[in-house]
Amino acid sequence: MKIILSFLLSIIILAPCEAQKVKPVLNLVKGNTYYTVSTVTSSILQSYNGQNVTVAVDMTSKTAYNITDVKDSIYTMQVSYANITMRIVSPNGTVEMNSDKKDNTDLSSSFLAAMINKPFSVTITKSGRVLEVKNIEAIINSIFTSMPQIDETQKAQLKAQFMQSFGESAFKGNLEQTLAIYPSIKVSKGDSWVINTTLQSVMAANISTTYQLQDVTDTYYQIHGDAKITTPNDGKVSQINGMPVKYDLSGTLTSDIKADKKTGWVIEEKLKQDVSGNIDVQDNPKIPGGMKVPMKIHSDINTTDR
Q1: Read out DSSP for 112-177?
Q2: What is the rounded (10 degree) CA torsion for 173, 54, 140, 144?
Q3: What span, in angstroms and rounded, lies between the C-alpha atoms of 79 and 99?
Q4: Cβ-contact 130, 172 below 8 angstroms
Q5: Which of 22, 119, 194, 207 is buried deepest, with most CB atoms within 10 A?
């Protein structure tokens, strides 16, 4: 009898235990408001005719997401910026922009200030995929319409830059980079999955990220991501400062994320991005014959929920 009991116990002890599976998703509550506070620090190294030029860009922003409707696995929210600041340091000097600054002569700060507390609509899935961004470009259009003191050519150029940085495509790509991180199936600690996203701002980029569930605590999921970044080889031409350009860039992005176990909202995210390659400026009146500009970009992005 003792032998049989010992044998049964050995089977129980030695039998492999199936790891507990979890399904991290967004579980947001209608009427609640969630926040992201992001700090971006970037260093851009460009080479012109053998000379290296460095540009440093710092940006901070606080964004509010108020959940207005929940249907099945779809969330509708009203999104608005609470504040935005930017600082650009280049060989031409330093430019500082602050949405809290009250100075009508500072046009850049006035543009940012006009974006504050102007709600636009965003629809996302429980997995963080952005289905639609509405009205943000109407807000940008109204900002430039209400500022007639700017030269029309300059206005058109500034408006294009704003659309590239804050328009629907740019906002969708940035939000998905933060929230579109969840697997389509249940996973166990140590499991990996792949998420493909597209970033569309000043340039277009395809991002393929392999995420891994590193830990599950009582309060949050710990997720690590390793991504490859490539610009599409589709021959499309973008515009920078009124000049046609093509991008040939690639790089990596690593992310360490803590997502609230109850809501799925990202409570802390640290990203490091390194991209390098060439910008091919096409023939144009400003640069006859065009030129190829080697470039390296390093960015550190930290996001919290408060």
Answers
A1: HHHHBT--EEEEEETT--EEEEESHHHHHHHHHHT-TTS-HHHHHHHHHHHHHHHSHHHHHHHHHH
A2: -170
A3: 17
A4: yes
A5: 207
List the chain pLDDT tens, one digit each, 306 residues.
Answer: 545 545 444 544 544 555 689 999 999 999 999 999 999 999 999 987 788 999 999 999 999 999 999 998 899 999 999 999 999 999 989 999 999 987 877 888 888 999 999 999 999 999 999 999 999 999 988 888 877 667 787 778 788 888 888 889 889 989 999 999 999 999 999 999 999 998 877 778 899 999 999 999 999 999 999 999 998 887 678 777 778 888 899 999 999 999 999 999 999 999 999 999 998 888 888 888 888 889 999 999 999 998
Q: In one letter, which amino acid is 39?
A: T
Note whether 133 and 119 are within 8 A (CB).
Answer: no
Q: Six-digit token pair at 251?
A: 């790089």
The span from the CA of 5 to the CA of 22, in Å, is 34
Q: Which sign, positive or negative, has the C-alpha torsion 119, 198, 196, 227?
A: negative
User: Distance between CA atoms of 147 and 71, rounded to whole angstroms?
Assistant: 40
Residue by residue, DSSP assigns 192-233 as EEEEEEEEESSSEEEEEEEEEEEEE-SSEEEEEEEEEEE---
Q: Is the pTM of this model over 0.85?
A: yes
Phi-psi region of 49 (alpha: psi -120 to 50; beta: other; left: phi over 0): left
Nearest of 181, 256, 270, 178 to residue 224 by alpha carbon = 256
